[in-house]
Amino acid sequence: MTEIPTVRRLLPGATDGGTPDLSLPEAFAFPADARSPADAQSWVRAVFVASVDGAATVSGRAGGLGNAVDRAVFALNRALADVILVGADTARTEEYGPAEDDSRWRGLREGRSPTAPIAVVTDSLALDFSSPLFVDAPAWARTIVLTSESSPAEARAKAAEVAEVIVAGADTVDLTLALAALRERGFERIVCEGGPSVFAELVRAGCADELCLTRSPEIVGGQGTRIVHGPALDPPVPLDLAEVLATDDGYLYLLYRFERS
């Protein structure tokens, strides 16, 4: 797939100043008021796909829920990102490698490296450091490992041979500290690809700015994990609906905004 998809815009509608059809880069561009380089905080966007009944995976993986446009949205968000944040479980399950250079979105990376680095959140450092995620990462996008002081020193030393290791937190990774460390390294726009536990921690810490959610027109059933996994949020976290897009195959592409604490 080489062309850039056009999607139908449902919200905002024409009466709200919206246009009926627009390209994905127009729909999912980071907001003009996203934090400037002088700001102390990064802008964090989470990207997920879920079924109508809320399942985030099919047979343990998210890939079975998406369509071609969802995959294009995923690739677009990678092109927009300065760094891609992902939990170790998701990186293992989805068999992550380095982000690929996508010719459709190459112009969006003008003035930056050809691809964004992957930053993996892990307390245990139970990762395969000989996997493509580490050994195939280009020099301009070396993989980053975000871990805690409690991680095994030997594993930390091994990780440092193939990745940049950032220690953020004592017993577990403190995502607030981790985001600050990424921001200090110039990563202003962070795209989180999961998993649900990492996203839950971002929401709980008040560190999420946007949720880019594809809604698949399927019912999965079972006890599948939702996009937020962990203790109930009390009170629930309200969101503002910024965009609703659709394609004729029944998929919806939603963009929500958080009130940042």
UniProtKB/TrEMBL annotation:
The keyword Lyase does not apply. Pathway: Cofactor biosynthesis; riboflavin biosynthesis. This is Pyrimidine reductase riboflavin biosynthesis-like protein. It comes from Brevibacterium casei S18. One of its GO terms (molecular function) is 5-amino-6-(5-phosphoribosylamino)uracil reductase activity. GO terms for biological process: riboflavin biosynthetic process. Signal peptide: none annotated. Residues 43-252 form the Bacterial bifunctional deaminase-reductase C-terminal domain. Keywords: NADP, Oxidoreductase. InterPro entries: DHFR-like_dom_sf, RibDG_C, Riboflavin_Biosynth_HTPR.
